Amino acid sequence: MKVIKSLLLSCFLLTGSILSAQQTETRKISAFNKIDAGTPFDVFTEEGNEESVKLVLENIALDNVITEVKDKILKVYLKKGNYKNIKGKVYITYKNLEAINNSGSGNLICNSDIKSGDFSIGLSGSGNASTKKIKAKQFKVRKSGSGKVEVSDIETEIAEISISGSGDLYIKNGYAKKEKINISGSGNVNASGVQTDECAVSISGSGNVDVNVAKQLYGIISGSGNIVYEGDAQVNSSNIAGSGRIRKR
Asked: If I label 137, which of 19, 121, 147, 151 is the partner at 20 to 30 A Cα–Cα?
């Protein structure tokens, strides 16, 4: 009996030491053009010649991390269970990318410039998302979580932004022929580095919008958020019912 107990204890300790050690696995996967991440791990994406996912994990077995492609969407998530002190990083290589979505607490970092017909970013968790330059005919952001979005540069005909959470959106540089911005939460939009010809802003929350408009600015405010603009835009405020204001920087 003592021998059996010793063997069981040894197996338990061995299993624990294996899980605590860093484990790495690279998985080849079928073609995809969208990423849906829902883990506590940071996810790094990069353009390449072949689609793959590399996992680097600690304190969690490799088979507890699911990577599957359905309808051209690569989904990364954990099996149901109680996990403690788990750590990890996910490295995704893609050939073509049209959308990213982050519903987890880890961050999603795009390390390559993105060129696509349309491109969208979705956030519904506490994790952040960041990208390099995005060139697309239409660019969309839908954000309902507390995570933040940071975009280095955009080049697009239409930028559509919807914020209903508390996290902010920051676009450093770029050009958009038209911008449509809707805020119903407390998150802010800073797109003052993006040159646009025409911008329509609707605020029903407390979030503020900072833009750079050359021709026409349309504003509807029913909350406490403000619209601050740079440029020579003609301002058309169709309805201001809240405490927020439209003002030039």
From this structure: 147
